[in-house]
Write the structure tokens for this entry.
Amino acid sequence: MKYVVTLLDTDPGLLTIENAILSQKLDETQKRLFYVLADLENLRKREEMEAENRALALEAKAFLPLLTVVDDLERVWEQAPQGAFKDGLKMVLDEFKAALKKAEIEEVPGVGSPFDPMLHEAVGDEEADLPPSTVAVELRKGYTLRGKLLRPSIVKVSKPRAESNPVEQK
């Protein structure tokens, strides 16, 4: 003889326990699913960021040599005598700067700006009539590419002038 157990023949207490167990397993499965989805979203964001950083690094590598050319053109322009040559050099320099701006390359703030170790590389200090820890001398311009440092400025930082103490004469 076979016993056929129907839903009506089972103990209602067992059904409640079984429902509680199934409900708990469903909750655990949903939590794991949410964690997996969150991990997947974090992975996607991380991959996007890494791809953006790789592209930015390639651009930086391409533009760094041009910054040296701009530096050299500025030095030559500063030393050139007045005349057509200096005017022509200024036009070429302006074209380079316009191209850099179009590529979202900006100059790091220089003389008179607060010293920022994330943007400036200090190689010394200089007595100046500026607030302490202000860029007093810029030895080489720095640049950012879309807000990220491309090349730091090389600067000297201001320090208060030493007060001269006259030696008392006797």
The mean pLDDT is 87. The first helix runs from residue 12 to 79. The helical segments are 12-79, 84-102. The beta strands are 105-107, 120-127, 135-140, 143-145, 148-151, 153-159.
